[in-house]
UniProtKB/TrEMBL annotation:
SMART domains noted in UniProt: FYVE
Domain FYVE-type: 1-56
Pfam name, any one: FYVE
Entry keywords, A to Z: Metal-binding, Zinc, Zinc-finger
Single GO BP term: abscission
Official protein name in the record: Zinc finger FYVE domain-containing protein 19
Domain of life: Eukaryota
MF-aspect GO terms: phosphatidylinositol-3-phosphate binding; zinc ion binding
Gene from which this protein is expressed: ZFYVE19_1
Cellular component annotations (GO), alphabetically ordered: centrosome; cleavage furrow; midbody
SUPFAM superfamilies attached to this UniProt entry: FYVE/PHD zinc finger
UniProt xrefs under InterPro entries: Znf_FYVE, Znf_FYVE-rel, Znf_FYVE_PHD, Znf_RING/FYVE/PHD
Coiled coil: none
Amino acid sequence: MSCFGCGKKYGLFTKEHGCPSCGYSYCIKCLKRPMPVPRHGGKVLNVCLICYDKLSKLQASEKVIDIEALPGVLVTKSKGNNSTDPLVAAAAALLEYKKMYLFLNIFYYCII
């Protein structure tokens, strides 16, 4: 067998290691990129170049929700125990946004 990254044959001095993200077989030189791995609860582990690129793009695409930028109706608080949790309101607003985005994409592709 050989390394999936560089093609080097495994032997006495070149040991086989599995990428914690994809599971493919790599030598230790090809597993030198630390990245939080979702399959391992976000633990920072050394991954292959392919997984590093994918996980980097995934991290870059994650958006932080600004609660102050949400519509006031969703984040209103009243006196007493019936106050709306801002995080729940943010999650609800994000879900509505995703539903609208999906609807618009389906509508667009049905027209074409």
